[in-house]
Amino acid sequence: THVANSNVAKIYYEKDSFAYTIEYYVDGDHQSTWDTTGTAVFGSQITGYPDKCPQGYKLEKAEGFPLAIGVDTDSNVAQVYYEKDAFAYTIEYYVDGTHQTGWDETGTGKFQSQILPASVLDKCPGGYKFGSYSNIPLTITANASNNVGKVYYVKDNEATQNTIYYVNYFVDGTRIDDDSY
Hints:
Elements: E1 17-26, E2 29-30, E3 36-41, E4 45-46, E5 57-63, E6 67-68, E7 77-84, E8 86-95, E9 98-99, E10 105-110, E11 114-115, E12 128-134, E13 138-139, E14 148-155, H1 157-161, E15 169-171, E16 174-176
């Protein structure tokens, strides 16, 4: 008898795996210790990445996704970029310790930037002078409740002492200019 398939060798191939890298950048600087590496089967795709966004930052862009795994490991690279986020801040104004809520100034600033005294509006009312600042310069944090600077105005006693007062007397609606009264 003759066995037809006894002299046949069968060879099976399977796809090989290749290395890939996901690089991370913060404000344009490569954070090589954050890089994620791995291996994946040829022709497969890497569609996501571990989020390593630091506090106060936001995703700027992700490039090279989906990452198609090829045989050239130098080409199996994608990048994730983070940039500073913007957060709200408030400058509050106080006259003799009383908060003047209608005077408050609000805005947004990039994380870790500063609001300097020179950029704070002067709203000093007559008869008062600048007293002090609280939390100015203001360094912007990721927590808006911490992003509050305060400006305090106090009575200007020198201005009050040098103020001249006039008293006018009227009789039946007519101003009296002499000292007869």
